[in-house]
Q: What sequence folds into this?
């Protein structure tokens, strides 16, 4: 599946077959989580405090782009890549 962003070993994905509420998927070192656009993990098994902090920081910075991608998903148009954390 295509990724939306990658940074510090974290892979962020969004899928066309998604359901509400708006969210994204994150993978880190074999663990996974589903996050809202404020960066809070809704479900998953990511335990790394550092990874959770980085995902939240990224989500807050990129919330507008995440919302735009969610709109694109609902309209069945392209999902855009989103700038990673540096």
A:
């Amino acid at each position: 599946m295509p990724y939306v962003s990658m940074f510090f070993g974290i892979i962020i994905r969004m899928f066309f077959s998604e359901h509400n509420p708006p969210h994204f998927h994150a993978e880190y070192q074999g663990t996974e989580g589903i996050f809202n656009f404020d960066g809070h993990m809704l479900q998953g098994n990511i335990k790394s405090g550092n990874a959770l902090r980085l995902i939240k920081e990224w989500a807050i910075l990129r919330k507008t782009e995440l919302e735009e991608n969610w709109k694109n998903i609902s309209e069945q148009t392209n999902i855009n890549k989103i700038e990673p954390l540096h």
Remarks:
- The chain has one domain: 5-74.
- Helices lie at 49-61, 63-74.
- The first strand starts at residue 5 and ends at 7.
- The chain has a mean pLDDT of 95.
